[in-house]
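Training component of the fellowship. As part of building independent skills, the fellow (R.M.) carried out the full modelling exercise for a liganded target. The chosen ligand was adenine. The inputs are recorded below so that the supervisory panel can assess the work.
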Amino acid sequence: MPKIGIIGGSGVYGVFDPKESIKVHTPYGRPSAPVEIGEINGVEIAFLPRHGKTHDIPPHEVNYRANIWALHELGVERVIGITAVGSLREEYKPGDIVITDQFIDFTKKREYTFYNGPRVAHFSMADPFCPEMRKVFIETSKGLGYDTHEKGTYVCIEGPRFSTRAESMMFRSYAHIIGMTLVPEIVLARELGMCYVNIAAITDYDVWAEKPVDAQEVVRVMKENEEKIRKILQEGVPKIPEERKCGCADVLKTAFV
Ligand SMILES: CSC[C@H]1O[C@H](OP(=O)(O)O)[C@H](O)[C@@H]1O
Ligand SMILES: Nc1ncnc2[nH]cnc12
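Fellow's submitted model of the complex:
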């Protein structure tokens, strides 16, 4: 049973060679694709492409609950989410890697929880990312010589449209990077006691800076970044401690009323 799951985003489709693919049915419907099982550097991995195998699911229509449930059902305890993001700050440059440490939710109409009653839960989201996996991927990305930001606040917008210049200026006053998929993916993983780390690859300066961003540019730059992501995973995944001492699952002890 794979204990590590990877959710790949825009332009990240070939990070390993799957040995099998499993169709998982969940109480929330179908995940974005069958879950692919394979290995990265000797470690068993479950992989899901967030936008489907042919990128036909837009960010606001991703079935985040089914994706996280499916990975959990297969035994996954730790989730690595790969995302393409725009930069809201000069010093966060296209091509840089960010190991996100906070998020701000600007989405509007998604399924945010597994707990819609009668069981009521309120999960702490103060420090949402797994400290053990953050450490591994910060060290790995830096060790590979990539320009790496140890911290960064990701503002998640609803999409599928990009921001207006005014929105971008506002977001820039409190966040460092912008994307459309981190929420509710991380929230749902946490609700099941799973660890989550976000490896964000910057593809563009959002519109506050210069010319309007476009989707083709994001996918083109992400293709260029794919090798970086592959290397970070190849080196980083085997360094993830097998036993979890991070406390990510402890939120379950205090969430229920
Ligand atoms: C293809 S442009 C916008 C698209 O790219 C990012 O995808 P992901 O987070 O899955 O890497 C962004 O969030 C949007 O979904
Ligand atoms: N500028 C941007 N805004 C929102 N999502 C993105 N994904 C990649 N670049 C983005």
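The panel noted the following from the submitted structure. The chain is about 25% helix and 25% strand. The mean pLDDT is 95.
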